[in-house]
Write a structure and sequence with these properties.
Blueprint lengths: L5 H14 L12 H22 L1 H6 L2 H14 L10 H11 L11 H16 L9 E2 L9 E3 L3 E6 L20 E7 L5 E5 L2 H11 L1 H4 L3 H11 L5 H17 L3 E5 L3
Antiparallel strand pairs: 1-6, 2-6, 3-4, 4-5
Helix pairs in contact: 2-4, 5-6, 9-10
């Protein structure tokens, strides 16, 4: 293979040093004082973005461990996005799939990082225009309920929404932590804690633009999935849940009647 053009060699050498200055020499002929400006500028931009996206994780890790973690990511992970705002997603992928776990990692590290990333991901997610008109205050039982595409039903082993300097669980909870993180019509990010029954209802709602079932039919299907509970109790509780989800813009409304 032919050698790279000299200007490309210079570019690669420059970038390699910025990413890993401890192990990659600076290009020849450039004063270190000038190189330091670039080293600090690039690294501080990345570490600042991560601190904003993962504020609780940043707070709970020691300063030395946090900076070492960001430095390892910055030096060794090959990102595949040209978008600066996508770097936290790349960081999450590196944490989950490429980084070697350390003995002093908190047990909740990966789940907390994912939960904190979700807020950024939802805030940047594009609005979705539905093909059909949705009636915000339609009859939830007799017409077709529509779930917001900007509402994500999530399940964690740790109560990630409660983790803080004063609460750092060392082991998973006895029951999964079920959350819905959503963006409402005012573009505000919120979350609610739910339970496994609501998770099942949300799963039915997520497919309902294709299934096109009325709320009554969805609740009958939910009751069939929960034979351990009286059917009428499931239906009444399900209707109350649908109303609560609509108040949060997790359920957008119903398809307009023909």
């Amino acid at each position: 293979m032919s050698a790279l053009p000299k200007f490309k060699e210079a570019q690669y050498g420059f970038a390699a040093h910025l990413r890993d200055p401890a192990n990659q020499p600076a290009p020849e002929g450039i004063e270190d004082r000038r190189m330091k400006i670039y080293r600090d500028l690039f690294f501080n931009n990345v570490s600042g973005l991560m601190a904003q996206t993962f504020p609780v994780l940043n707070q709970l890790l020691s300063e030395e461990k946090w900076l070492r973690t960001i430095r390892d990511f910055y030096a060794h992970y090959q990102c595949h996005t040209p978008l600066f705002t996508e770097l936290p997603k790349e960081f999450l992928d590196w944490l989950s799939n490429h980084r070697e776990a350390e003995a002093d990692d908190p047990a909740y590290l990966l789940e907390l990082a994912h939960y904190e990333w979700v807020e950024l991901a939802l805030s940047l997610a594009p609005d979705v225009e539905l093909a059909e008109e949705v009636h915000r205050y339609g009859d939830l039982m007799n017409t077709i309920p529509v779930m917001s595409p900007l509402a994500w039903s999530l399940s964690y082993h740790f109560p990630v929404h409660q983790i803080s300097p004063s609460f750092q669980p060392e082991a998973p909870g006895e029951q999964p932590t079920c959350l819905v993180v959503y963006r409402n019509r005012e573009d505000e990010i919120g979350f609610i804690e739910t339970n496994p029954v609501t998770v099942q209802l949300l799963a039915l709602l997520a497919n309902n633009l294709e299934e096109r079932k009325t709320g009554d039919a969805l609740l009958s299907q939910l009751a069939e999935q929960l034979p351990q509970f009286p059917e009428e109790a499931v239906r009444q509780g399900g209707l109350q849940t649908l109303e609560q989800l609509r108040q949060k813009d997790i359920v957008l409304g119903t398809l307009a009647e023909d």
